[in-house]
Amino acid sequence: MSTSTEVRSHPSRVRRPDRIAGPFLVLGGVTFFAGGATHPGDSGEGSKVSQLREMLVDSMWYPSHTLLLVAMACFAAGIVAIRLRGGVDAGTAKVVRVVSVIAVVAALGMTVHLFAATEAEALADGDKTFMYHLFAWIETLVNPLWALGIAALAVAGGLSRTLGNPMTLVLGVVGGLAHALAAATIAFTDRFDALFPVGSLLGVWGVVVGLMVLLRKGGPSPAA
Question: Which tops the pLDDT comparison, 124 or 95?
Fold first, then answer.
């Protein structure tokens, strides 16, 4: 007597980033928007050092940057979750791998930036300290790279529709380019500071894409 094994398709677990990445992206988007809205400003007068000190002594420095740190950490966690769990096309996955590294570095940079207020007195005389230069490098190099990375992710995911769609693509690109330009030049000129509110579109991108990922349904995959 002979037996045969029937190969059939049945539902199996689909690797989706929704249960982890979705909530992280939503929370990251909300806190990024809130952190930007509560960020202290300066008078626009005097040197860049004195302008920075004005913000450092503002009572809103720590609340706003705590929100921004949470935002950076959540974006990093969400993107790393997508990298580990999949759920996107091959092209987007390549972008995710690069952006996940940038996102983690940016979260660490924001941790340092949060405590910039401890240098307020050292900057009282208008002198540039070592920590001032460190903060400047984080602001003008790391943060723009992060914004451009999110913009690239918005393009890849939006075109493939595995992480957003063409509409979220626009949110990510406009917000990313605006934030990157404003952050990269803030230590040298006030000309592009007005772009920071436009950069808050990155927060909107995070919320919308996070909800889309969270609500997305995966289909069954064939298994023997």
Answer: 95
